Amino acid sequence: MPSPTPSLPHPSAPDAQKTGLRPAQAATLAASADALLILLFAAIGRDAHQRGEIITGVFATAWPFLAGAAVAWLALRLWHDPLRVWPAGVAVWLGTVGVGMILRAVTGQTVVLPFIIVALLSLAVFLLGYRLVVAGVRRLRSRPRKG
């Protein structure tokens, strides 16, 4: 016999409501985008400095930053709202650079002020940039249509 009480809707992450994605899909897409953009950052840096070992070199350069992004995702549970610029984007950006530089220093890799500045600026453009585009698209979609 059916229950006389209507079932309540299951709450979902705010990003999922705005994009039409399930929460797990939004988190998977955002985490994948973050990882790919961090790998792109490492690849561009290695290419600019004409370093060899293309694939293994990119991963060797990127792993501290990928670990930093993972720490930010896990520590702040960013899967709940991963596509927002604040706090998710800023947390991933600062966690990626902060933890990444600490890991580079601990493992004997280069950590100098010019590199820190380049990493901060480049990863801000990448990790905050796509989230700003998503925010702009959301804003355009939510505008009332004329006519």
List the helices and strands and how they pair.
Blueprint: H1 14-19, H2 23-48, H3 54-75, H4 85-106, H5 113-142
Helix pairs in contact: 2-3, 2-5, 3-4, 4-5
Descriptors:
72% helix; elongated; mainly alpha; 147 residues
Shape: elongated
Sheet with most strands = none
How helix-rich are the residues, as a percent range? over 70%
> Which stretches are low in confidence, meaning pLDDT under 50 for 5 or more residues running?
6-13
> What sequence of helices (H) and strands (E) makes up the elements?
HHHHH
- Fraction in beta strands: under 5%
Amino-to-carboxy terminus distance: 48 Å
SS-based structural class? mainly alpha
Average predicted confidence as pLDDT = 88
Kindly provide the radius of gyration, computed on alpha-carbon positions and rounded to a whole number of angstroms: 19 Å
Number of helix segments? 5
Describe this structure in words.
The chain is an all-alpha fold and 147 residues long. Helices cover 72% and strands 0% of the residues. It is built from five helices and no strands. It has helices at residues 14-19, 23-48, 54-75, 85-106, 113-142. Helix 3 (54-75) packs across helix 4 (85-106). The chain is elongated. The N and C termini lie far apart (48 Å). Residues 6-13 have low confidence and may be disordered.
